[in-house]
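Design review, sub-item: ligand-bound model
Attendees: FS, YL, KQ
YL presented the inputs for the adenosine-5'-diphosphate complex:
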Amino acid sequence: MFKKVLIANRGEIALRILAACKELGVRTVAVYSEADRNSLHVRFADEAVCIGPARSSESYLNIPHVISAAEITDVDAIHPGYGFLSESANFAEVCEASHITFIGPAPGVIRLMGEKNIARGEMEAAGLPVVPGSPGIVENEDEAKRVAADIGYPLMIKAAEGGGGRGMRLVRTKKDLVQAFNTARGESQQAFGSPNVYIEKLIERPRHIEFQVLGDSHGNVIHLGERECSIQRRHQKVIEESPSPVLDDATRTTMGDKVVEALRKVGYSSAGTVEFLRDESGSLYFIEMNTRIQVEHPVTEMVTGVDLVKSQIRLAAGEKLGDVVGPFQSSGHAIECRINAEDPNTFAPSPGRITTFRVPGGPGIRVDTAAHADAVIPPYYDSLVAKLIAHGRDRAEAIVRMEGALDGFVVEGIKTIIPLHKRILADPDFRAGNFDTQFLEHLPPAAAK
Ligand code: ADP
Ligand code: ADP
Ligand code: MG
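KQ shared the predicted structure:
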């Protein structure tokens, strides 16, 4: 096992990784930006190094700064968490060259999956159904027209290196194609440093269903069931649950087997998530793979009892999947609500100082957070303040526990989307498991007080 691990992240996920390291008896190094000087991950780590100013490009995304911190503190490995450098093949390579283990899959695999159009081709060749679309990057307007004529409207133009719900453009009719294509390329260049886009057929009223996988460096891969993440705003997840209310056992088994087989072929060796869209007929189509720990990993942990972050670290240290995970049995149902510092109606960010912070507890309740009373939510990073997870023997019990926990969760000083979560949980269609990715667009607005 590693002696010392550097955590190249902040917020709740930095604390989550810290906890896993402590359980494994591994010493920890936190890195932080000037804006995070007083954060809990800095306080709880064995050592902490400031890596630059608030802007993430100058701190959490600055590879030389992170590597210098790792070298000064003499760590064996770096855990990148999610976001930031977690899906940077370049960073994973620099770690390797510096003789530091990157806790994640091999750089080549990160690169393969990071170009979403290449990942599509690779996964299709490995036996997964993919959303119909362009065979690769769409280079110019003429090619866009040809692809569009071939797959039909409506369609999505997507940034090859997109992520976090950004870099997607819906095109309903032929007359909008050329302009949308050029805008999408420009936006992709701006946001991701590459103009490369590809085209996918729009799946109407889809459900987002994803499989959690774990692989080791000895060629073994397993899956730990699926998560349903269809409650989204702006293509970003707001509520996730496991199992999916709509996936039947037969589909779970056949698709799970196909996922495992495909990832064995690419030599996948860490935690990862394979994302699908499910159309109204029930068919699943691959959209992308995230080669990192996912924000919503706790719902899978609650249902399977497997500690995914601890597993990631042990697998990176070379242990075998059979020793790390062993036999497990899924039980009950888990739901996660992302508590973002945002206006619950407009989703406008609401950074600032938290005055009151009261966290719920009780049977089946888990809260992952780095927030506390008097903490400041800075405007520079994502708006996640806490993840509230409820587990129950079945979905109905998980929902009731979640409702109680939302009532007991008090955050003052900033706005959060707790009121929105209460409305979602109370909605008859949500309770019946009857929803798709457009659910929030149709949710009746909050009653005026
Ligand atoms: P998950 O797939 O785990 O649900 P999210 O899409 O919510 O993850 O993203 C988690 C965090 O990572 C967010 O802060 C998001 O903005 C960031 N992120 C994800 N992908 C990218 C990317 N390609 N470029 C920049 N940031 C990203
Ligand atoms: P990101 O890398 O930003 O996570 P994804 O490709 O995973 O992007 O897509 C994020 C979300 O966008 C999906 O969960 C879905 O709601 C929507 N989406 C993406 N592709 C399509 C598509 N072809 N048809 C319909 N919705 C889509
Ligand atoms: Mg995605």
